Amino acid sequence: DYNTSATSFNNTFYGCTGLTDIPVGLFNNTSVSTFNNTFTNCTSLTGISSVFQNLATVTSFNGTFSGCTSLVSSGISANTFSGCSNVTDFSNTFYGCNNITTMPSGIFNYSSGVTLFAGTFQKCTQLSAIPSGLFDYGYNVTSFANIFSGTSISVIPNGLFNNTTKVLSFTGTF
Known about the structure:
Number of helices: 0
């Protein structure tokens, strides 16, 4: 609550293997722009609730939860990124989160300016379902490279990429 001028929380909790949950309101900061690799390799983390709500200045969540191998679908809220209206980069956000089986519908609805989803769910080996409308607000996305590479996706919902007309790369998407 007292670090209202911090602009970066990059690598802040990197490798905190005992961390199991993140309290809502941990980041009450109106100046922060990046959360790159903030919780990378927090292997005991199971839930992230709505920890980033209303952080309109954030532009990047690159690798934020990469390697959080205990993170489960029920521990991820559809409101996790609500109010983060200026995000442009979700690359590798959930890379290697082996216990995620699906994502909540609408988790990215608040970020219509996102350009990068490269590797977002890559190597999430248990991810088997994509909710309909996951990228309904992906008007500015330019890359889905490797986003679902190394997952267990068996069905692709109709219209998944309908609103993503600016994409330049689908390299290795599945």
